[in-house]
Write a structure and sequence with these properties.
The chain has 1051 residues and is an alpha/beta fold. The chain has 33 helices and 15 strands. The protein folds into four domains: 406 residues, Amino acid/polyamine transporter I (Up-down Bundle), CATH 1.20.1740.10; 38 residues; 142 residues, HUPs (Rossmann fold), CATH 3.40.50.620; 193 residues, Rossmann fold.
Length: 1051
């Protein structure tokens, strides 16, 4: 027979001839190739048939790379669906570069309302040096944060979601949710700040006549009314569509850039020709010059001296003979340049700060002034401080002007290469804006008169913004530019904040926020927008830009603090996944940034800082307690693992002191045939005993092999976890599969736990049905567990009638926990009632201690000694000494012992008969085997040797006869009990009588558990003794010490 072999190149698609050749072997290929693919395409793509069954869980490298290549990090709701898809329905690939996508948005967000409305006032109040310190601190803080953010942003693909995504995935859901909500609140209050800035510009500089209420104390009401209207209008624009906001973004950015360029142009112009803005001083006091043109008391008109418009401000009439204020009469009016210019030397006067309480008049110290005792308190003609000023307040007001560094990372979904663009664009934007701020601080101080700088609203320069009178060609450039800049920033805040809240809600980590994850059909977050508008309105009702600024400073600083913390934690842990492309970071920089953020929080406002931290802490604990479980591979989990490893190593190094001893429980649970927990109350009792402290390991054993019962083991673990959660048992659970229960429990007793966190006590339920069981496995397992825990120096707690123990919802109103202290084995008996009394179930139960006195003991002295011992142990308990006199062994005891031994003998006979049947089956098998081998030997011509069998027929017959003869001599019903068994039964009966008499109404009885006999022949009797000892008692806990002291009288 000739065979022809055909070799086919598997690297190429199979040819038609090759397919026909292998078609006949289709049936043989079925285990590896899908039999449904008939026809010509049957063998296509089968080069990797060997791995076919793993394709579902482990895709081919080619398909994985294909998915990565087609990956777009756009998420639903980031932009409107009209923009997210082209007309043919294909999603657009992000095309934004570093300049357009990161640099310009960051610039627009950082430069804003504070620069135009408050920076000149900050320079005037804090001085050039103080302002330089404020600006430097804030800019260094944001720069360090940007370095940390760049490291996190370049450590893998950053989907749309920006800063919240980075923090939550780096620090875990608890920190992520807390910081995410802080960032959301900061962004929302930023919207309030920008709207208040818009209204301030509108009512102060553009349309001063539009006020609904009179100026002065009623000015905040104007801010509230117009601010609310502006908020509603902006919310409607955002609701209609984000694309309108995006289209206007370029206009707003152009306004900001033009305003800054106008300011620099004005500074340069002061070198050539200072602006013609004059301020009027009365003595050394600055006057509001919006109501008069001439800075003089009188003027000559047609050779007649008349009073000016300024006269009625200080006199009771416009006539020269009117009664005027004394300070007006005593001091002269002086007119000086508002902007002396760069070369004027005014920088020397503006170096140092000039703080003061609210109502302080703004005075030029170098100007002469006649001191006059004021009789009136009217300061309305003068320029004065509207609020009390101090350094830390200025830090809080200024900090919002450096926020906005997250704008680039928030647009990560729109960037062509986010990992390259975010670090470069953000850091360049911070460096640029820092240069602008620092240069502005120096230039303002070098160009503008000090009293004008301290004039917050520009009252001394005809109600123009101070930065506006410096700008060239006109103050209106600044007014219009800052107005549109604030409008744009407010719209962007109202656009970004709802999306941030929607991202948090969709993560599902905060259950009560889930409603805000929904929106319009195109993904617009409608409900989140409504909540944002509501919170924004709170900021507007405050009606003061200076009061709102520190609030959002807190929330942004907390966000930046956690960005730095995330980077520091990841760097120090050296997690394998921490491989940022941005290399210019170090954990010390992150730590410095974190420290600076925390310091700035308390510098700005210590009480706001505490409130922000409490809010973040409450959110953290809420997510920890109620939030959905998320595993994001975060750094805090890695930190926990490192801390746990360190603590475990330290625990193992030092021997545990008696004062630190607490029961670390290994709870041996049984699962029924449905893999449900057989005794849930065992876990209730564990919770009551532990009160959530220390180590608890809940274990169970399934009989079989892991390959066949692996899924059952997982199901059993899930059921255990469910019961543990229901019973509020804090701990770990584990289900092992073993060939038999005995080996499984033995392995758990030996190896459960890790390092210093190993169990020192075993808790199990009493095997109630051991008498009714057909085999003796339950009894043997129990006794072997007792022996093994003793050998391992572990305590053992055995609960009888565990299903009658109270659950965690019950409250025992009264009653006793009785301790029967027969032998001292470490003091565990006295410690357990104290631990139970810490739980609300047993809290109202009193503790009683009974001890047994023999005939030759002094029971009175024993009681005194025991009371003193308990006093030193700081335990409150009643003490009673029970005297047990020597008495004759009763007929009842004798009869009970006899019945016990007869039962044991009967069980042995039953076991023996079963063994005989097995031996007979073995005999038949051996005989068949022997005859078969003898036949084979004869056929081979060999002489068969004698077959040696374990059981021959003769041996079996002789063994049976011997046993029958033995039973004839000693009839089961005529046997006499063993003397040692009678004595043990006597002890059990007498002790049970005493316990039943004294503790029949107790809520719980704790008894010393006697050890099993060293000779294993008495095992069956041992269980009987324990049954007699506990007879008639409802709830019993047998306690066997681990061979070490667990309670001490020393502090």
């Amino acid at each position: 027979m000739t065979q022809t072999l055909h070799f086919v190149d598997l690297s190429k698609p199979p040819k038609k001839h090759d397919k026909a050749l292998f078609y006949d072997s289709q049936r043989e290929s079925r285990p590896f190739i899908n039999p449904d693919n008939d026809g010509e395409h049957y063998y296509d793509g089968k080069n990797m048939a060997l791995f076919e069954e793993e394709m579902d869980s482990t895709p081919m490298v080619s398909s994985l790379l294909n998915k990565l290549a087609n990956y777009t990090n756009l998420t639903q709701g980031v932009r409107e669906h009209e923009e997210a898809e082209n007309e043919d329905g294909v999603r657009r690939v992000p095309q934004m570069g570093t300049f357009i996508g990161v640099y310009l948005p960051c610039m627009q967000n950082i430069l804003g309302v504070i620069l135009f409305l408050r920076l000149t006032w900050i320079v005037g109040t804090a001085g050039i040096l103080g302002s330089f310190a404020i600006v430097s601190m804030c800019c260094i803080c944001t720069l360090l944060t940007a370095i940390s953010m760049s490291a996190i942003a370049t450590n893998g693909v950053v989907p749309a979601g920006g800063s919240y995504y980075m923090i939550s995935r780096s620090l875990g859901p608890e920190f992520g949710g807390a910081v995410g909500l802080c960032f959301y609140l900061g962004t929302t209050f930023a919207g309030s700040l920008y709207i208040l800035g818009t209204i301030e510009i509108l009512l102060t500089y553009i349309i001063p006549t539009a006020t609904l209420f009179e100026e002065g104390a009623a000015m905040p009401n104007n801010m509230r009314v117009y601010g609310t209207c502006c908020l509603v209008l902006m919310a409607l624009v955002v609701f209609v569509g984000v694309k309108y906001v995006n289209k206007l973004a370029l206009v707003f950015l152009a306004c900001v850039i033009l305003s800054i360029m106008a300011t620099y142009a004005g500074v340069i112009k002061t070198l050539i020709e200072p602006p013609e803005f004059k301020i009027c001083l009365l003595g050394n006091r600055t006057l509001k010059n919006e109501k008069f043109e001439t800075c003089a008391k009188t003027k000559v008109v047609k050779n007649i001296t008349v009073t000016t418009d300024l006269w009625p401000l200080f006199c009771d009439s416009e006539y020269p003979n009117a009664t005027c204020k004394e300070y007006f009469i005593s001091n002269n009016l002086t007119e000086i340049q508002a902007i002396p210019g760069l070369l004027s030397g005014v920088i020397k006067d503006n170096l140092w700060g000039n703080y003061g309480p609210a109502g302080t008049l703004i005075e030029k110290e170098s100007q002469p002034s006649a001191p006059v005792k004021e009789t009136t308190t009217d300061i309305s003609p003068y320029v004065f401080n509207d609020i009390t000023t101090f350094f830390t307040l200025l830090v809080g007001i200024y900090f919002p002007s450096v926020t906005g560094i997250m704008a680039g990372s928030n647009r990560s979904g729109d960037l062509r290469d986010a990992q390259r663009s975010i670090p470069i664009g953000t850091i360049m934007a911070i460096l640029t804006t820092s240069f602008i701020y620092i240069s502005c601080v120096v230039l303002f101080g070098a160009c503008i008169e000090g009293v004008v700088l301290r004039d917050k609203f520009g009252y001394s320069v005809k109600k123009n913004p101070v930065i506006g009178i410096l700008a060239w060609p006109s103050p209106w450039v600044i007014v219009i530019g800052s107005f549109f800049s604030c409008c744009g920033a407010g719209l962007q805040s109202l656009t970004g904040a709802p999306r941030l809240l929607q991202a948090i809600a969709r993560d599902g980590i905060i259950p009560f926020l889930q409603v805000f994850g929904h929106g319009k059909s195109n993904g617009e977050p409608t409900w989140a927008l409504l909540l944002t508008v509501g919170i924004c309105e709170i900021g507007i009702l405050i009606a003061s830009l200076d009061a709102v600024a520190p609030i959002l400073s807190m929330f942004f600083l907390m966000c930046y603090l956690f960005v730095n913390l995330a980077c520091a934690v990841q760097t120090l842990l050296r997690t394998p996944n921490w491989r940022p492309r941005f290399k210019f970071y170090h954990w010390t920089l992150s730590f410095l940034g974190m420290s600076l953020c925390l310091s700035l929080m308390f510098i700005c406002s210590w009480y706001y800082a505490l409130v922000a931290m409490v809010i973040a802490g409450c959110i953290y604990k809420y997510i920890e307690y109620r939030g959905a479980e998320k595993e994001w591979g975060d750094g805090i989990r890695g930190l926990s693992l490192n801390a746990a490893r360190y603590a475990l190593i330290r625990l193992e190094e030092v021997q545990l002191h008696t004062k630190n001893w607490r029961p670390q429980l290994l709870v041996l649970c049984k699962l029924d045939s449905d893999l449900a927990v057989k005794h849930p109350r065992l876990l209730s009792f564990t919770t009551q005993l532990k009160a959530g402290k220390g180590l608890t390991i809940v274990c169970s054993v399934l009989v079989g092999t892991y390959m066949t019962r692996g899924n059952d083991a997982k199901t059993g673990e899930q059921n255990l976890k469910a019961v543990m959660a229901a019973e509020r048992t804090k701990g770990f659970c584990h289900v092992v599969v073993s060939s038999n229960l005995r080996d499984g429990f033995s392995l758990l007793i030996q190896s459960a736990g890790l390092g210093g966190m190993k169990h020192n006590a075993v808790l199990m339920a009493w095997p109630a049905g051991w008498k009714q069981a057909r085999d003796s496995s339950a009894r043997r397992n129990f006794i072997e567990t007792v022996r093994e825990t003793t050998a391992a120096h572990q305590a053992l707690l055995v609960a009888k009638n565990i299903d009658r123990f109270p659950d965690n919802h019950e409250r025992l109103k009264n009653g006793f926990i009785d301790v029967w202290w027969i032998v001292h084995d470490g003091g565990l008996l006295m410690l357990l009632p104290f631990l139970l009394s810490q739980h609300k179930v047993w809290r109202k139960c009193k503790m009683r201690i009974f001890t047994v006195a023999q005939m030759d003991d002094n029971s009175i002295q024993m009681k005194k000694d025991l009371q003193m011992f308990l006093y030193h142990l700081r335990l409150d308990a009643e003490v009673e000494v029970v005297e047990m006199h020597d008495s004759d062994i009763s007929a009842f005891t004798y009869e009970k012992t006899l019945m016990m031994e007869q039962r044991s003998q009967m069980l042995k006979q039953m076991q023996l008969s079963r063994t005989e049947r097995e031996r007979e089956a073995q005999l038949i098998h051996d005989r068949n085997t022997a005859s078969h081998s003898a036949t084979n030997d004869k056929a081979a011509g060999a002489t068969p040797d004698r077959v040696h069998m374990t059981w021959t027929k003769d041996k079996l017959v002789s063994e049976r006869n011997r046993q029958r003869e033995g039973m004839a001599v000693k009839d089961m019903f005529n046997m006499k009990p063993s003397q040692s068994n009678v004595r043990r039964m006597h002890t059990a009966v007498k002790l049970n009588e005493a316990v039943a008499k004294k503790s029949h109404d107790s809520q719980l009885v704790l008894l010393n558990m006697p050890g099993p006999p060293k000779n294993k022949k008495g095992d069956e009797n041992y269980m009987e003794f324990l049954e007699v000892l506990m007879e008639g008692l409802d709830r019993v806990l047998l306690v066997r010490g681990g061979g070490r002291e667990v309670i001490t009288i020393y502090s």
